[in-house]
Amino acid sequence: MSKNETTGQAIARSLVAHGIDTVFGIPGAHMYDFNDALYGAADKIRFIHTRHEQGAAYMAYGYAKSTGRVGAYTVVPGPGVLNSGAALCTAYGANAPVLCVTGNIMSHLIGQGRGQLHELPDQLATMRGITKTAERINHQSETGPVISEVVGKMLSGRQGPGAVEAPWDVFGQFGPEADLPLGTRAPHPAINPDQIAAAAALISGARNPMIMVGGGAADAGADIAALAELLQAPVTSHRSGKGIVADDHPNYLNFVAAYEYWKKVDVLIGIGSRLELQFMRWKWRPKGLKIIRIDIDPTEMVRLKPDVGIVSDAGDGTRALAAALAGTRCENRTREFAELNEEARSRFQAVQPQLAYLEVIREALPRDGFFVEEISQMGFTARFAFPVYGPRQYVTCGYQDNLGFGFNTALGVKVANPDKSVISVSGDGGFMFGVQELATAVQHKIAVVAIVFNNSAYGNVLRDQKQVYKGRYLGSELTNPDFVALGESFGVKSFKATSPGELREVLQKALSLNEPVLIEVPIEKGSEASPWPFIHPAPHAD
Question: What is the DSSP-derived secondary structure letter of residue 403?
């Protein structure tokens, strides 16, 4: 005789079958039958409850972004979904497989507009607007097929977030325990050999090719490094691509150095990248530039049309291109690259005090540790001044640049990587968006070291209002708590460091404690040198 289970239990079983071992979230009335199913699956799924829905979703984002695996969270419908929406759009912008499991009002009332608890006019449409895919489970029997479909779409091609909702009454609905289908990644696109041949011909005629890598190339680092060595081409990256080819690889060019090399580039090879750096940040392009793109998303070839577009997985396309160019002999240019890096570093050394602090953090953080940026003066500077040595180790928010993601995301990174050091670097403004999750860190023993650079301002806004709007400050100056006392009130070991030397000492201690730590670093308001001339450099003279 077949065993019966609720929809909630079937969802939990499906999550386990898909390799999901952690769910972040906050329980609530619509979700009780699913929450209870998670309780029943506690030996297979860890449930980490947070103090805000946005915290739960960002933690799932940190889990996904740092591993490439599905990060899952659950919140109530309506306001819960909307509170978590910023993290879903971050996951969309950064191509991270984040799964939202939520509820809805009673099935027979959906669309009636009767004003039920947590009702949205069209929640499914709302979620579809900020995810790659979103579906509803209308009946217990649909559970396995719906979840497998959503997970499969999330993981296939250009990855992204997904959402599943079930009406309040459906979560507790009983039905036979059925075999669960598994959502799997679609096969990689077949490579068009004509495009490989065309790309190889362009490269063969090039004198100064450059490789640009983005987050879509996270698993192709070794193949990209081999191609760079074969061609004696430099590799650069902006933020999501950091660490895919290590900063200390002889062919890696810091992007400030890469802009100098850019003057003479004749072929740009973009791999798993939107080419934001070249087309939105640098803007200036060398005459006669040819563009080759390797990207799994065919629409990328329409959004920014290349001379040769290779629709493929980053690793597959890079290996095929290297095979077509096998036997190429190029003069070793790594000394040239080293000199360009050294010259760039000497120039951006002027971005103080950020550089001095970032150097201390890099020194303290183990080579395989994780650095989670934030929208802050330290975060912007880190994009070009913080060396990274492995893929996914520099955790960023992609193009959303959404203030407040950092600390919460770092907690998810640490949950996913419990044996690795995780440092969160925030400004006072961004940190206060998620400060309540200090309680989550303590309750669940999540040993993130959070460094808060306190300049009593939204620093970028303050600078712009000073320089562009002649000091007409509006909403950019901040009155803050005593962060050390605040951290201690949560039961977090908290310290203050007033110089790079002090931070060095405190950070070494903090990383050895294996518990949550908060470090406040006071910075004089408006004192930071602007990192923007290096991110948005002036055009080269033609």
Answer: T
